[in-house]
Specification:
2 copies of one chain form a homodimer.
Chain A (H helix, E strand, L loop, with lengths): L8 E6 L4 E6 L2 H7 L3 H11 L13 E5 L13 E6 L6 E6 L3 H7 L4 E5 L6 E6 L2 E6 L8 H11 L6 E4 L2 H4 L7 E3 L2 E3 L4 H7 L2 E7 L9 H17 L2 H9 L3 H8 L17 H4 L1 H7 E4 L11 E4 L9 E2 L3 H6 L9 H14 L3 H16 L5 H4 L9 H13 L4 H4 L3 H8 L9 E2 L2 E2 L9 H9 L12 H5 L15 H18 L15 H13 L5 H21 L11 H5 L14 H15 L9 H6 L3 H13 L1
Parallel strand pairs in A: 1-6, 7-12
Antiparallel strand pairs in A: 1-2, 3-4, 3-6, 4-5, 7-8, 9-10, 9-12, 10-11, 13-14, 14-15, 16-17
Amino acid sequence: MPKGGYMQKILRVDLTTQKVSVESLPEKVARDFMGGAGFAIKYLFDEVPAGTDPLGAENKLIFASGPLSGTNASCASRMAMATKSPLTGAVGMSLSGGYFPVELKFAGYDVLIIEGKSEEPVYIWIHDDKVSLRSAKGLWGTATLDCQQIIKDNLNDQNIRIACIGPAGENLSKMACIINERRAFGRKGVGAVMGSKNLKAIAVRGRQKVPVASQDAFKKANAVMLKAMKDSEALYPALGKFGTPVVIEVLWGSGTFPAKNFSATGQWNPVEQLGVGANEVRKIGKEPCYKCPVGCAQIKLVKEGPYAGTLSVPDYETIYSFGGNLGVTDLDSIIYADRLCDGLGLDTISVGLTIGFAMELFEKGIITKEDTGGMELTFGNHEAAIQLVSQIAYRKGFGSILADGSKIAAEKIGKGSEKFAMHIKGLEMPGYDPRGLKTHGLSFATAYTGADHNRGYSSQDVFGSPVPEPVDRLDPKGKGRMAKWNQDMHAVTCDAATMCNFIIDAYFPEGAAKNTADMVNAVTGFDYTAQEVEMIGERINNLARVFNAREGFDRKDDTFPERILTEPLKAGASKDHYISKEELNLMLDEYYSERKWTAQGLPTKEILLTLGLDDAVTELERLASKS
Amino acid sequence: MPKGGYMQKILRVDLTTQKVSVESLPEKVARDFMGGAGFAIKYLFDEVPAGTDPLGAENKLIFASGPLSGTNASCASRMAMATKSPLTGAVGMSLSGGYFPVELKFAGYDVLIIEGKSEEPVYIWIHDDKVSLRSAKGLWGTATLDCQQIIKDNLNDQNIRIACIGPAGENLSKMACIINERRAFGRKGVGAVMGSKNLKAIAVRGRQKVPVASQDAFKKANAVMLKAMKDSEALYPALGKFGTPVVIEVLWGSGTFPAKNFSATGQWNPVEQLGVGANEVRKIGKEPCYKCPVGCAQIKLVKEGPYAGTLSVPDYETIYSFGGNLGVTDLDSIIYADRLCDGLGLDTISVGLTIGFAMELFEKGIITKEDTGGMELTFGNHEAAIQLVSQIAYRKGFGSILADGSKIAAEKIGKGSEKFAMHIKGLEMPGYDPRGLKTHGLSFATAYTGADHNRGYSSQDVFGSPVPEPVDRLDPKGKGRMAKWNQDMHAVTCDAATMCNFIIDAYFPEGAAKNTADMVNAVTGFDYTAQEVEMIGERINNLARVFNAREGFDRKDDTFPERILTEPLKAGASKDHYISKEELNLMLDEYYSERKWTAQGLPTKEILLTLGLDDAVTELERLASKS
């Protein structure tokens, strides 16, 4: 067994039978999947069979931390959670930072598997080895910050850490997320899965320490990582000082900051009102994750006007989704919307995009005031956007049409509206226009979660990073190899070792994989090579791909919204660019070939066996025999 | 020195010089003033001379706990604070429960005196014997719940307890209060005093124990108190089960539930929409004070409609001030207003009454839409009320006229509006119409803080309590003696021993004073008799009266708003009653006589010397020589 890093235990809670059990974490699972998303996808694949209703009792919620989490490692306090996504029908993988993730390790568990469905609202209270289900009848309907406070008060311990859903999750909005403090296990409707199980919250308090195999080796590795981070211009001063809003200016520079539901990217410039300057005026502090020296999460306070007194921590994505994307330049309204979404437990990207979709339909006359309940749903109308946020969470008024995201809204509305729904596989687009960021775009098209900026972020495209090599962001060629590298490195470093996404932007002389190996080896006592580390990332992506394949996903789903495929950008530094269907096919062919997948986008037996995914081979063969 | 109960220390923080010092609590002060309001008025009287500008550096904030606070005593976790009130110019005395009060004792202090004025926004961080001033620049502008969370996060201890102001206090609204958790040191603009000193918050964490002189005696006394509480119908089941909203039904029964700025008391019946039934539907839990077995603070959640998801803990007074008083029957809007006031740090009674005053002016045509910025400010318009709450906190729009309470608003508006301003000495009326509750009314007229239901609550009037003897609430005769008894018992039991107000409603076979003596003696080792205890209450009321006298207050200020003196109630169980000027004079004569005060309402040398208030005699003599 590994000598450190892991608590060696899996906690399983069956909400149907109310049975709580503890299993050992198998050494082979630890070695092959490392932790976090690796563990989560492993158990999701094994335990959630094809055809499972995402909102049925058979779906599971699998939370898993990594070996570094809870140690003194800088920027590794995150946790992954996986479930079958009700929004996409594919793998729903989310990661969150903060303090909840490490607390679960302090309580003694690497993995928490929640299954079944409670008859009545409950929450799970994990206090070291005492685990119980408690009634959440009184908590049902509470906003997430209130819910957390009430649980702390009721259990008489302010140091309890809690992940919970808000009204949106209770009402099964497929845009609901799971909130801990102000942070989210975001996107993909993971909050609705909790809601469907009548599970309001998970409360954790632990007093154990995470063992470290070699303190000397750990200190050395962590020092190297800290230095690399400090040397990285992206991290210091940019992200450390200004937080993620710096991305607005960077993207405006490359003509890829999406505006007005992607209809005005490169044309409509809100940098002055939404960029770093405007954010700095409202910044009052930071809210860093456990042991994080960067602190990209910046607390913003509205100081005047109708939203005065509102405080929240909107990141770049929210400023994009409720700002540029909606043609809104009122940053205060975005802070308000962010706070509202956190409280209701809603994903800001999906909600902002779904509202943007509706705004475009309204401006095009596809829907009218009769549909919106009298709302003048034009771009820029932040009052309407804010009103819709609540309507979405409670499925009221026009919000009932939008509550499950843009894809389902388009199905309900019809009239050709689907072409304005900016999603991939049902997941709304994050704030990067793929037409000028083709590595990133290819990653969106192929990521196992849908349009997800966190499953293979392309720093090469966005920041011009030369690691592992520079790219021409506008040239579709060569993108397959780079997208694969980004996805695999992201999967292992950020999702399995659960180091912060921004680590990827740091330059490591011996490579990021070597850094991850050094960190994880020091903590666990394993002897991963850099190559093995990369292979873990590849393993995760392949296993997730097979999970999706058995749900019916293949090449046809690796695509973009019609606008990306047909409308060239009209202005800015990426003017005239788009991704034609031919380009997409070229990129996919290259990508599948790099991955050793078939032309249909399915993993070959060869690559699966190389990765030791024998079970996945069996599943794929069963699939093939059926069709 | 006493053997228990006290930490024996006074902490003094000078914000001008940033000097922190510790003084011993003198034994004589402990014995003569017991604690809480006793200590607070003692130091206020000694240290804040006549003519002090309430919002100047010379005013002080004096926080003081009682001997029982922090022990296992049931319902004694409160703390008093005194300052010269910017709203009334008189003593501003407030008490709050929760957890902040006991934490200050755990840190080792009975009294905290804050003086001077900081140049920049600061907060005080008291961690046992380590006391420091820290910058609050970043916290300036934050809502109270956010402020508390950020301080806990920044100091990396979720168990810190905090009292702070919101934007209203920063903007020096004379209706601002000081919030700890969701509780308030309310009324009298005490939050503006903090704001004027650039003091955003006081954060406390302590690890000491409060010594108890005799555990055996204490357990015995506490058991008697618990039994008395359990035997009291008012406490169990009424207050324990339903919280303070039960008062609505009780007052409706006696025709004294104030409606529409006291213009429709007894006529307009909102019991169904605002009473116990409506509250029960929204109740999701309790938020009891430290060691409280009753838990009158009930958490309410709005479950549907435009305010859905809002959670707050409105007590009877808020349901009155934003409900009946505004002609509002939408309980959800009241919960929303309560939450908003807590966040902004505003006193719900004063704000509700000031808005009600404006609504009556609007309905009478004294002000119009031109004054209100277009608002249709009619009774029942809760949307307008909610809009005004924010405007008041930020002194924006029509809110800038209302921001300092009804008395000052009337001065600004003129046009005879003063007669609709429902205040005494500048403090807005709580939710008891004195026209049908004359003992209570006399207490309002004479209380040293203005119209304050907590400076001599009349359970005899309100609940028909036979302790110490039954009264005829409609007969002005005999009220002097009863008002004095209520005021003195309240001052010592609730304000000095800091036991909960509701203790007063319990029946003690040997009398409430004996119970207080038993409790305090057990904890401190003192040997108070019941008579001595009553005398401490009297001492507090007399010293406060002299404080006010040297600020110019006398008989002329012991009065009611014109409506109470001239308009008989039009319907209900107190129909045709009011308090004529003749009745008022009769009641005052009786009251002054009971108190051994002059016909001008000033304490005589005789009574002051009897009470050992020699310094007060000197002050009164100096005053007399001037006039």
